[in-house]
Amino acid sequence: MTERDFEIMLYGITANVIAKIVELNNWTEDVAMERFAQSKVYSYLEMEETKVWHYSSLMLAQLFNEERAGKFSLPEV
After folding, report:
1. pLDDT tens readout for residues 16-34
2. Which among 48, 49, 45, 54 is positioned nearest to 77, based on CA atoms?
3. Distance (Å, rounded) from C-alpha 26 to C-alpha 10?
4. Is residue 18 within 8 Å of residue 33, measured between CB atoms?
């Protein structure tokens, strides 16, 4: 996958994860986007080699919420 292809895919995944975070936490899009962008989950998502982009949007949103609760760990791929 080219870097450009990955960036395009990352944009779509991020948008879907933000929508799930909004739904799960009753936050505005802006708040969800700001908090997600500062998370460990997002930092792993940005790195193609971690393969976190394989996870569903719901799983990524749940991992984000677990991280906020202090229980962050990535499931085995």
Report:
1. 999 999 999 999 999 999 9
2. 54
3. 23
4. yes
Distance CA 69, CA 61 (A): 13
- Where do we find the tokens 């976190």? 52
Q: Token digits for 60?
A: 């990524």
In the block, tokens 């749940």 appear at 62
In the block, tokens 């450009």 appear at 4
Q: Read out DSSP for the chain?
A: --HHHHHHHHHHHHHHHHHHHHHHHT--HHHHHHHHHTSHHHHHHT-GGG-GGGS-HHHHHHHHHHHHTT---PPP-
pLDDT at site 75: 82
Closest CA to 76 of 52, 60, 58: 52
